Amino acid sequence: MNDAPLISVIIPVYNGDKYLGEAIESVLAQNGFMLDVVVFDDGSTDDTAKIAKSFGSSIRYHYQMNEGIASARNQGITLAQGDFFAFLDADDLWTAEKMKQQWMAFNADPDLDMAFGHARQFYSPELTQSEKDLINIPFEIMPGYLFGTMLIKKNAFLRVGLLKKELLMGEFIDWYARAVELKLKSIMLPNILLKRRIHNTNYGIICRNQRKGYVHVLKAALDRRRTGR
Q1: Crossing angle for the helix pair 171-181 and 69-79, nearest 10 degrees?
Q2: pLDDT per residue over 63-84, tens digit each?
Q3: What percent of the chain has pLDDT over 90?
Q4: Which long-range contacts (CB under 8 A, 24 or more apart) does 61-69 make?
Q5: Which of 68, 99, 103, 111 could form a disulfide linkage to 30, CB 3.0–4.6 angstroms apart?
Q6: d(CA 86, CA 84)
Q7: Cβ atoms of residues 116 and 86 within 8 Å
Q8: For the chain, how are helix, strand and coil distributed in percent, rounded to 5?
Q9: Domains of the chain by start residue, with CATH
Q10: Residues in Cβ contact with 83 at an 8 Å cutoff, skipping those fewer than 6 apart
Q11: Letter string b/e over residues 207-219, b meaning 16 or more CB atoms within 10 A of that residue's CB
């Protein structure tokens, strides 16, 4: 893609050595794009650093003491050098033409601020059948209003601002609500752009007791709409 700009890809990770390599490989497989891949380690104690550094100059690796995924994502954003931002969690995978499909959408509409796509969930291969039965995920393809499917212009992202790092869950819902309030122009592509890995240590699974945080995030967004703030 000769006309494509530099795209920064931010990958936050915490103790993700088991899956990080595959995630990075799915990013580097986006042929034809200039990529600035930032792996931001949120205080891992496993072999995350070793895995990341094995990719050499293909990525930039940074470390901080554990502060949470929103903080790690924010730090990655501040280090990003691209004119566009994309994101991937360390246990998920992009599909082969993720970036190409989105870049075609931006070429078709210069006023577009951000592009999303569909996502499909999959069980991580190491799960036993009994573990799969306990998690019980839907397999239908779903519109992916997620960081992992998003490609966004840098200036559009910065208009919305960084994530609220005090949110343990729901930080994307809060950010996206603010983007909608600012009337950022977006598109939902029909293509599957993200494969979401389901495993025993998914953040949403191990932090089920924090899910009430989603309610607070949604309430805050509704309150802003009512007050116009």
Answers
A1: 50
A2: 999 999 999 999 999 999 999 9
A3: 76
A4: 62/38, 64/40, 66/14, 66/42, 67/42, 67/43, 67/165, 68/42, 68/165, 68/168, 69/12, 69/14, 69/42, 69/171, 69/203
A5: 99
A6: 7
A7: no
A8: 40, 25, 35
A9: 7-227 (3.90.550.10)
A10: 5, 6, 7, 153, 154
A11: eeeeeebeeebee
Distance, CA of 201 to CA of 198 (rounded, Å): 8
Place of tokens 């994101």: 87
Report which of 67, 69, 77 is spatially closest to residue 16, judged by C-alpha positions: 69
- Tell me how long the chain is: 229
Structure tokens at 110: 């210069």
Contact, 40 vs 77, CB < 8 A?
A: no
List, for residues 17-57, the tens digit of each pLDDT value: 999 999 999 999 999 999 999 999 999 999 999 999 999 99
Assigned token pair, 94: 């992009």
Share the mean pLDDT of the chain.
89
Sign of CA dihedral 18, 20, 25, 27: positive
Is the overall model pTM greater than 0.70, yes or no?
yes
SS3 of 202, please?
coil
Q: Are 152 and 84 in contact (CB under 8 A)?
A: yes
Selection from 7, 196, 195 nearest residue 100 by Cα: 7
The whole-number pLDDT of residue 203 equals: 59
Strand 114-123 versus strand 142-144 pairing type: antiparallel
Cα(197)–Cα(156) distance, integer angstroms:
28
